[in-house]
Amino acid sequence: xxxxxxxxxxxxxxxxxxxxxxxxxxxxxxxxxxxxxxxxxxxxxxxxxxxxxxxxxxxxxxxxxxxxxxxxxxxxxxxxxxxxxxxxxxxxxxxxxxxxxxxxxxxxxx
Length: 110
Hints:
- The protein is an alpha+beta fold.
- The chain contains four helices and four strands; from the N terminus they run αβαβαββα.
- Strands 2-1-3-4 form a four-stranded mixed beta sheet.
- The chain is globular, with a radius of gyration of 16 Å.
- The model has no long low-confidence stretch (mean pLDDT 87).
C-alpha cells in the first residue's frame, strides 16, 4: 500500500488553504472617519489577499446594537473572522497591515 509522502500532503494542504473561503464581519459605529478607514483598509486587504473567496459583512452597531451584544463587541472597529475556524477577533485600528494579515492567518508571524 502506497502512502502519500508528507511533502505531498503538505502541498495539498497549501492548495486547500489557498482556496479556502473567508467569512468576515466588521463591527463599526456609524460612518465616522475611523469607521470608513477601517472598511476601506479591510476591503483593500481582502481584495489583495482573498480576491473572490471572501464574504464581508459590515455591521453598524449604532443601528443594530443587538448584533453587537450577541457577539460581545465592546470596542470598535472589531473584525471577526468567522470562517475558517477558529473564530478570530481583531480589535482596534486596522491600519497595521501586518497585524491584520497575521490575525487573519494570511501571513506567517515573523
